[in-house]
Amino acid sequence: MRKIERRAVLCLLLALALIAGLGLFCFQYVTNASTWASYPFNRHMYDNSGQLIGGTITDRDGDILTEVKDGNRVFYPDATVRKATLHAVGDPKGNIGTGALTAFADNLSGYNLITGGYSPIGRKHTLALTIDAGVNVTAYKALDGRQGTVGVYDYTTGEILCMVSNPSFDPTDPPDISGADKDRYEGVYLNRLLSSAQVPGSIFKTVTLTAALEELPDLKTRSFRCTSETEVGGSIITCPKPHGEMDIQSAFANSCNGVFAQLAAEIGAEKMTQHVQKAGLTNRISVSGIMTAAGKYDVSKADKGQLGWSGVGQYTDTVTPANMMTFMGAVANGGKAAVPRLISSVTSMDTGLPSSWSTTTQTDTLIEPDIAAQVKAMMKNNVVQKYGQERFREMVIGAKSGTAEVGGGKRPNAWFTGFLDDPAHPYAFIVLVENGGGGASVAGEIAATVLRACVDKF
To answer: What pLDDT is attached to residue 402?
Structure first.
């Protein structure tokens, strides 16, 4: 009898394990089946050369960026457009993992949980991206062959209007990146807006300013003096020139390293870390399902001088451009912003009906509303006091430049980030030119050119 009981218990346990395994499989199937089906070895979706055999991609205006004709995938007829939209659209072989041809293969192929990769009425789906091809071309030309990225998005809807990463190439004539042009195409498959965490330099002072305004109640009544060298915890923090007597607004406009190093050291490692995390700069953001790279802010072993350098965007700090752009949207929008997205719509060309919808979602509170209003005002003052309003014509803009030292004898990275304070054009932006030199002069000019294109177009 006992033997029968033991066998009954064992059978019950095996049955429970089977049910649990079946439940896990069903959960994995619902959540991951589209990814499984989208692997290039699936001949229902890809041909023998690894090219997706169905689906059309357009920009926001309906301009066809890539489609399938006579069984072959073709791209936009103009080579500059192809290069400017490469990292949004993707390449035929799927080397650019964040490109729509790879990241959104399930949408393009018409995959669903019921019929899988097979559709009785064909696989003719059109995926409309949020980007504008013309604005992307403007940004690509403004980069003028330099490595870097340009991003612009609507912080009220989440639509990414411009996403350019360079180096790029013509998807109809891919280069041999292992040959003589190896250095020229370094990182060519990387979408720098979404997937490249870089030393931020002085654009990071927006976060240090956020922390200081919240943690130091007397900040706005303080007076600071810069002689070009400031001692913080035994380390000398240098500025390119002495800034003299300043309040916090002028210190921010002058981008005074000494002041912001002192503030970071006074705030402390724990509080600084909390504010960086709250700003979303160390997290990964889902951009229509594409996860951005996580930035880094680790001052757990930093001495006071190193903590000071972290407050000016150096030490071991890194940020991903898309995450910083989103934080700029939150500054402009009262503490929260729309999460960036790349998909506008997906429709069936056979039926003309939508097969999926793209909705706007909001971030958590990245910055407290009252603090956001103060940072916003100071960033607008930066443009008037330092960068020159005339560069941006009638645009009401707030901005922060950055010149980030990267070491290795290389020129600094040039950054320029901010927002338009305009209900008709609620755009946040970021520009990075790797080894570009001066942030305001190099990246700022690119930002002005691209933002003018956005305002004129939309």
So the answer is: 97
